[in-house]
Design brief:
binds guanosine-5'-triphosphate, seven-stranded mixed β-sheet, elongated, Small_GTPase, single chain, 213 residues, Rossmann fold, alpha/beta, P-loop_NTPase, EC 3.6.5.2
Length: 213
Amino acid sequence: MSNGLNIMNTNGRAKTTDVTKLAVIGRAAVGKSALVVRFLTRRFIWEYDPTLECSYKHTTNIDEEPVVMEILDTAGQEENINREGYVKWADGFILVYSITDRQSFEDVVNVKQYLDDVKKTNVQCVLVGNKVDLLHERKVDFCEGEMAAQDMACAFFETSVSDGREDITEIFHELHRDIKRRKMMENKGRRRSSAQQVRHVFNRMLNKIGNGT
Ligand SMILES: Nc1nc2c(ncn2[C@@H]2O[C@H](COP(=O)(O)OP(=O)(O)OP(=O)(O)O)[C@@H](O)[C@H]2O)c(=O)[nH]1
């Protein structure tokens, strides 16, 4: 894969490690920083300063393959948003809303449209409805999240970062797998089109020889 990193094995052979760049996006206070920190440290910390922008590098194994994840925890506050920069940088997006905040849900639906417009493609993403521990304050139904994810053609998770459910790791891993699948398809397409070009030139040469020109 083109977006890889060469790492030496113990036997001295170079091995390509996938590098995946993920941006975590959502309105202020939906739990983006808590989600990233939970994934990286398996801990939940109740209070963070509102994020400006924070990035992390994380090395892990997914499906028995070494992976480097670069994770950008973006600013939720509108005036801090430097969207174009991270949209172009990222391979995929974790779109987070809080099930207790209707506006945060509407925001991510609009953000997805914006991401598709900037990237000029249907971007790879997962949709995450956070804070399900606050069920009594629920403002967004499970099936609304599920339907939005269907429209976005992406995976959907409802979770609680504070409860520390197993699915938090799965959110990041699932997005990595989707990105990897997409890159493989794109590479295959590129290889096929260069093979087609070679075949085309070869056929023209054969025609010329056949015509005696
Ligand atoms: N009850 C509950 N609170 C949560 C959960 N996840 C995060 N929080 C709380 O929500 C608040 C905001 O969390 P952050 O992780 O700072 O949210 P953020 O989206 O990064 O916010 P910005 O940095 O301002 O964009 C904090 O008080 C967290 O403790 C959760 O699953 N359940």
